[in-house]
Design brief:
- The structure is a homodimer.
- Chain A has about 100 residues and is of the alpha+beta class.
- The first copy, chain A, has six helices and three strands, in the order ααβααββαα.
- In chain A, strands 1-3-2 form a three-stranded antiparallel beta sheet.
- In chain A, helix 1 packs antiparallel against helix 4.
- The longest helix of chain A has 13 residues.
- The structure holds a DNA duplex (30 and 30 nucleotides).
Chain lengths: ~100, ~100
DNA sequence: TTCAATAGTTCAATATAATTGAAATATTGA
DNA sequence: TCAATATTTCAATTATATTGAACTATTGAA
């Protein structure tokens, strides 16, 4: 169960936009952003308590495949960080603007 | 056959992002943007020649319902304009940034 | 070491959305 | 009146999202 992450160059605008177009995923990203570089488990970053685990897991997979987060195993948890540098290198200002506008 | 457009306040970030997350729709929006306020028929703004008419029509519907374009009948054509002012009033800088980054 | 608890993932089923060809609608010009 | 044009609507197919249930991996306690 090791995760596949796209390299920085493989992050696409289409992928980023469609990942962020979902309100639940945007809330996950905001949480990670405000977590300032710290990892968070899926449960910690969950956008709402009543969401099915499998749905949450799927949202994390979409964020991961879009290149927005990086996930590593850490004991029984899977911890994710926002790939802020990669996203800003590829699409400068986009992440911050979207988070600001979604406030 | 008159079109329903959301009012400025009803334009949502989610709607705008998911409308722009499709490469064909992004090309339509780019075309309209570069058209500088001028209307364009569906056929003129078509992102690729081989796309089915019904698919194109559906993309215009999605753009319209997201509040990105305004469409009016003009003879046998349905002409669309980008709702630049409305989008910028609601989400300042977003449209220009996405178009720039997608360049 | 065994076992239960925890955290996520995968699977299969259902529900929702996108794509397309074909048929329908509306407008104009001959 | 009729054919041409531009686009929409419809129905079928295909793709994507959501969920509960079963599965996997890791840890901590008895």
């Amino acid at each position: 169960m090791n995760f596949v992450h796209p390299s920085r160059e493989d992050i696409t605008l289409e992928g980023v936009l469609s990942a962020l177009a979902d309100p639940m995923r945007l809330r996950i990203v905001r949480f990670l952003y405000e977590n300032r570089g710290n990892c968070a488990s899926c449960a910690e970053a969950a956008p709402c308590p009543k969401m099915a685990k499998s749905t949450l897991s799927n949202h994390f997979r979409i964020l991961r495949e879009a290149g927005l987060i990086r996930t590593v195993k850490h004991g029984v948890e899977h911890r994710s960080v926002l790939r802020k540098e990669d996203i800003n290198a590829r699409f400068p200002g986009l992440l911050e603007l979207i988070l600001k506008l979604a406030a």
